[in-house]
Amino acid sequence: MTPAARLSAAIEINAAIEAQRVPAAQALKEWGTSHRFAGSGDRAAIAGLVWDVLRRRASSAYLMGSETPRARLLGMLKLERGMDADAIAALCDGGRFAPEPLSEAERAALASASLAEASAHVAGDYPEWLDAQLAAAFGADRVAEATAMASRAPLDLRVNTLKAKREKVQASLKHLGARATPWSPVGLRIELGADARNPGIHSEEDFVKGAVEVQDEGSQLAALFSAAKPGEQVIDLCAGAGGKTLALAAMMGGKGRLIATDRDKRQLAPIHERLSRAGVHNCEVRAPKGETEPLADIMASADLVLIDAPCSGTGTWRRNPDAKWRMRPGALELRLKDQAEVLDRAAVMVKPGGRIAYITCSVLPAENNEQVRAFIARHPEFSVQPPEETASVLWDKAEEFSQAALRSDEGWLLTPRRTGTDGFFVAVLRKG
After folding, report:
1. Cut 0.90: pTM above it
2. How do residues 187-224 score in pLDDT, each as one tens digit?
3. DSSP of 118-151, one letter per residue?
4. Which of 236, 309, 240 is nearest to 270 (CA)?
5. Which one, of 254, 258, 249, 255, lies nearest residue 285 by Cα?
6. Distance in angstroms (rounded) separating the CA atoms of residues 121 and 128
7. Collapsing DSSP states into helix, strand and coil, what is residue 155?
8. SS3 category, 179
9. In Å, how far from its chain's centre is CA 284?
């Protein structure tokens, strides 16, 4: 397919997303199924265009003065891809499979329109109803922070120290451009261009043998900040597919007791194969059965309970840009209730002197600082571990990290703009 034909396809897919109100991944899959002539490179390039339009959905429409799928794509090409009016016009020439030529109004908008007078939620590309929350988190920087959250994320890997060392794996993955992550001592990063296909990491020998797992550097840091140690009794209370469970197991060096569970047993389905591949032998997976508490025997005996809390996912907008446009206030209210419940559930499991690591992939204060303050008001036997003490696990990078991340009385907030990671909040709460 020509670059112009790819633009036409992206316009078609975005029109389907809006008209049918389907997730972008589904729309892309359905288009690929009905257009089998498109090669893998074509599909990757078209997907990149579609995701980028969703990243700049509001700002591109504002720039062009229109909310049509075509207008959003044209505006995105300027805002996200840095193309000028002449370059865009060259692709939109009305030829076979190409978009129609630019109108005078479109060319004028591409040549001279700007976001200088746009509202914060338009310039930052996020739903207007979230503006108060983002203002509380970032103040006048919210447009810059949200713009960074709309950028494309790299592919981050965590080296499994139970099986390998970072230097060796980095050398093995040199052909993919892997380099050490800025903060995590066990991370590798592969940068991805706008039209790049995700590398087939799952077919790499290092992945097959369990030497690496796909995990954002922010998620790696969140696990590291829990300071899980060999010999401890550790509970991963919202384990899901097991990403942080595997990180905890590596930190524990195979020594101690690690228990993984989740309210939704369906989420646990992939964890067994992942634990086996990673060479983890000290983890017990407990799936819920009915209303029975699967951790009834852990009352006041855990050294660490890690809560990767159910949340809005605002910190992962780089990876799932259409999620922010489908998010509704009612969903946030449900998440706040779930978070309070899981924190209260964890409180009774922690022994005196033990700790809770509370983690969200959200940047919203309601899910982060406010949730921690409310928990401590309900459970005065807990207190916040000083954030600088939490970050001390980074050793020589602790001071540099403290200058980059947002520190509050309750914990650390990581963001794409500040730390180059997904958005994560981490608080460590000590008992007694």
Report:
1. yes
2. 999 998 776 777 889 999 999 999 999 999 999 999 99
3. --HHHHTTS-GGGHHHHHHHHGGGHHHHHHHHTS
4. 240
5. 258
6. 5
7. strand
8. strand
9. 27
